[in-house]
Specification:
There is one protein chain. It is elongated, with a radius of gyration of 21 Å. The longest helix is centred in the first third of the chain and has 24 residues. It folds into 2 domains: 153 residues, Leucine-rich repeat, LRR (right-handed beta-alpha superhelix), CATH 3.80.10.10; 112 residues, Leucine-rich repeat, LRR (right-handed beta-alpha superhelix), CATH 3.80.10.10. The two termini are 24 Å apart. Strands 1-2-3-4-5-6-7-8-9-10-11-12 form a 12-stranded parallel sheet. It is 16% helix and 18% strand.
Amino acid sequence: MIKHYTTLIYLCLFSLNIISQKEFEKFGPYGSILQTDLKEALKTENKVYKLDLSYKNLDPKLLEKLYTLKDLQALKFNTNELIEYPKNFDALTNLVYFATYNNKFKFFPPNLKPFYNLYYLEFQHTKIDSIPAQIAYLNKLQTLKFGNTDDTLKLPNTFQYLKNLKELSIENCILDSFPKQLFKLTNLSFLSLSNTNTFYLTKHFERFQNLEVLIIENNHLTRIPSEIYKAQKLRIISLRGNKLTKLPDSISQLENLSLLDIRGNSIGAEEIEKLKVLLPGCEIKF
């Protein structure tokens, strides 16, 4: 059993690394060379667009010169034993992609205003417990992924100003409730909250006019608001690992729904049969 569990964890991590790498590859000018050696990148200096420093033991003196890579658009740190951002990090104003995995940063970069070009931002396995109010400066941001702190996470009121945000994923963090700020993000097409200590959903689904994928897994939901049908573009809903006993009949009005995952709940056979009638064209996993 332990061997099987370890293998499963390995496969999940391997899968996440593949997804992360594919996201990274989307950014930077077409045909640009991917650099993986900081020393060599600093020698080149100009036209260094993509830098992946995963699993590198970084020389602090070289890292202090990172800011000289003025053309840098995509930057990834992964398992580098970093606890602070490099000197003059905010000089990298051309960044459109920044991700860090398994580094012990305690904060976001102290000055977010210069990063107005960011489209993709990801923090995994950090020591960060709050998203700063300055996040509002990132008004081009389309993807934000944050997770695996196993600690509380506070969202600022200014979070609602990320009007171009399309994809939001928060996992393995503690949120006291479903953040109301999220309902102000009207361009969201993908929303995932997994293992976030979420107990309830507010009812303003009419604001999610572009939402196509809703994932709220491994939480404490006991009911789903009947207003969920107002998010008419929903194609995929995953509510795995909650405490649901039924879903509202109004879910039948989600005409685009193609997948409903309700595994790991206490939904009885009779209720599942009713869902099959309500959603004849939808695959239901139970």
